[in-house]
Every structure is written in structure tokens, then in C-alpha cells.
Amino acid sequence: MHETLVESIKGNIDKTEIREKKEIIEGWCFDLSLGILPLRAQSKSTIIYPKKIKRSDVMEYYGNNESIEECGWILETPHPQTEKYKLEIKRNDVWQEIMELPMIR
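User: That's the sequence. What structure does it adopt?
Assistant: C-alpha cells below.
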């Protein structure tokens, strides 16, 4: 549960919707040992940085670890998407893909 493409990273996409010609994707992620790390969504031609949000529900689920309370994120991409986006996390100065983001139809 909550697995990503990187073993030590937990995460999930909780919500997707279309609003004002934008695709809104909402979720959360963190590294089990390093905590909250920088995120970005990348397609072949675009990089988008998500807005961070508090997720006390995730913090409580993972043992009331206050260091991960701001593990949530909201990302806006153009609608309709013409390219797939990958969510990446920066660990040890290297960007690593952790999941492919859904394309909303």
C-alpha cells in the first residue's frame, strides 16, 4: 500500500479533477528515511512544480510523524494534456521518477 517506483518512497494520488481548463491532481509522498523532498512533474517538454499542502491524515497514519505533515501536493497541468507527466522526487541531488501521473479525459 502506498508504494511508488522507489522502494523507500511512499505516496498516493488521492484526487483528480478538471477545473477551468486545468487538470488538478492532488496527492502526497515522502521518503521513509529522508522525509519530505523536492518534487516536480515532468513531461517531454515541460516541468511543473507542485504546491505543497498539509496532510495531517497521512501524518497520523504513519505514526504521528510531524516531519511529514506537509507531504501533500497539488499540481495543475493544462487540459487536455497532450503529454504524459511523471512525478519525480529529488534524492541526493538526483531526480528520480516515483510515479506516472494520470491523464484526465
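The chain has one domain: 9-91.
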